[in-house]
Amino acid sequence: MEHEFTKKIKDVLKTNFGNSSDKIFSGSLIIQYLNLKTKSASRDSKSRGSFANLYAIYVLVEDYINKDYHKTGNYAGYKGAIFIDLFKRQRELPFGQKLQNHALNHRMNQEFKKFFPLCDFIPIIRDANKYWFNENLLKIKIDNKEVNIAKSVIEIIDEYILVKQDSFNKFIEICQGAHERNKTEKINFIKDLLKPKVDARIFEIVSYCILKYYYHNKKIYWGFKIDEIQEDNLKLFKTGQE
C-alpha cells in the first residue's frame, strides 16, 4: 500500500541507503508497519494518528541509538530499558501527553502480528519492567550486506510528527482568523472541518465545541424518563416534609 506519506518514507531511505532504498522499503517489515501507520498524515484522516504504537517504537529505538547499539552490536548484553523512563519519554513527545502503557505492554505487538502473521519476531521484547526492541527487525540484509535501519525509523516518525504538527498549527491559525468572516462563511468553515479527510483530532475538537455550545444552557436527564424523575423528586420532597 502506498499513500502520500509513503514518498517521505522513501525519501528518508533514499538519503540513508541510496540505491538500496527500494529493497529496504519492500524487505523491512518494520518499515512496512510504519507505512501502514502513517497513512493518516494525508488522507483517510478519521483514522487516528497512531501515536501510541509509533511512540512505543520510537522510544525503544531511540534508547537503542542513544546507547550506540546500532554501532557497537552489543545489544544482546543490554539489561533493558526501564519502563518509567520509556513512559516518561513518550509523554514528552508531541501529542503524547495522554498516552498510556498499553502500546508498550502488548498492543503494538498484537497489531504487528495481525499485519504480519508469518513473521517470526515481535517488535517489543519485555521482561517485567525491562524492555528491548527486537534487533532482528532493525537489521536488514541487502545484496549480501547487513544494514541497520534504526536511525531511519526515528527519522520517519519525526517526519510524520512534523506533518501532523503542521496540520494542527494551520488549523489554529485558520480558527484565529475565523471571527473576521460573515455568518455563511463561518458555517461553511465549520462544515469543512467535519469532512472525512480532516485530521481526527481536529474533528474531535470541532465536534466537542458544537456539542458544548448546543448543550451549554440545557438540562439533560440521562437514563430515565423525565416524568419518572419528577415523580421521584416529588416523593423525596414529601418524605422530607414529613
As a whole number of angstroms, the C-alpha radius of gyration is 24 Å
**Residue-averaged pLDDT:** 85
Find the count of extended strands (DSSP E, 2+ residues). 5
Spatial order of strands in the largest sheet: 1-3-2
Uncertain ranges: 43-47
Helix content: 55-70%
Cα(first) to Cα(last) distance is 73 Å
**What is the percentage of strand-forming residues?**
5-15%
The tally of domains stands at 2
Structural class: mainly alpha
- SS field, number of helical segments: 11
| Biggest sheet architecture | 3 strands, antiparallel
SSE ordering: HHHHHEHHEEEEHHHH
What overall geometry do the principal axes of the alpha carbons give?
extended
Describe the structure.
Strand 2 and strand 3 (130-133) form a beta hairpin. The radius of gyration is 24 Å and the shape is extended. 58% of the residues lie in helices and 7% in strands. It is mainly alpha-helical. It is built from eleven helices and five strands. The chain has two domains: 6-163, no CATH class; 177-242, no CATH class. The model is unreliable at 43-47 (pLDDT under 50).
